[in-house]
Amino acid sequence: EPRSPWCCLAWTLVIGTMNSLVFLLNLLLMFVIFTIVLLPTIVVVYFGFQCHSQVLHSSARYCKSILDDNSSSALIILGFVIMSPLLVVAMAIYCSLARRLQLLVCFQPYSLALYKGGRWCHRGEGAPCCARGSHTHLKAWV
């Protein structure tokens, strides 16, 4: 049966807040994974730009003794070349974790705010939260 207008508004706020928190959790997880996986690229490109005479030209000792303009250019090129495979690895790790933790199932439909009697979770599923109407034989990833 339909909810009253005030109850519907309250449930809409609760579901909207929960969906926003799940979105922020996914975004935080993605940021952490991409930062860790792309750290070699970040470091290599940073040192390449820091020691190049036409960009930043740092006065650090390693820039004067080890890295000249040619080696700085090589570091910059190497950093951008290894970025593509590392992006693929980072996305694969994120998708694997999102699948294992079932984070994408945590988004709740707004129909729970409109009608009484909707269930938040199905019993027996391993997810920390689960969507209304999801079935065990219907999966996003096989």
From TrEMBL:
GO terms for cellular component: plasma membrane. The chain crosses the membrane at residues 21-49, 74-94. InterPro entries: TMEM88 (IPR033355). GO terms for molecular function: PDZ domain binding. It is a multi-pass membrane protein. Its main location: membrane. Coiled coil: none annotated. Keywords: Membrane, Transmembrane, Transmembrane helix. It is found in: Membrane. Belongs to the TMEM88 family. This is TMM88 protein. It comes from Certhia brachydactyla.
